[in-house]
Amino acid sequence: MDNAKWTFGLTMMIVGMGGTFLTLWILSLVMDTLKKIFPLASKAAASEKK
């Protein structure tokens, strides 16, 4: 077994997982921001419009 291959594989796995979690975190921030910009209408307000 070549240690360099194992080291490279583990490094790529950690970097890939880190990139995935970073992307998910950024997407959650975008969704929270959009929820603040465009809040959901309450049910009472929706029934008054009808």
Query: What general outline do the C-alpha atoms trace?
Result: rod-shaped
**Unreliable spans:** none
Global Rg:
22 Å
Q: How many runs of DSSP E, i.e. beta strands? A: 0
The N- and C-terminal alpha carbons lie at a distance of: 71 Å
Oligomer: single chain
How would you spell out the order of helices and strands? HH
Helix share, percent: over 70%
Major sheet characteristics: none
Strand content: under 5%
Structural class: mainly alpha
Number of helices: 2
Structure description:
The protein has about 50 residues and is mostly helical. The protein is about 85% helix and about 0% strand. It has helices at about 5-35, 45-50. The longest helix has about 35 residues, at about 5-35. The N and C termini lie far apart (about 70 Å). The mean pLDDT is about 90.
List the helices and strands and how they pair.
Blueprint lengths: L2 H35 L5 H7 L1
How is this structure best summarized?
This protein is mainly alpha-helical. The protein is built from 2 helices and no strands. The chain is 84% helix and 0% strand.
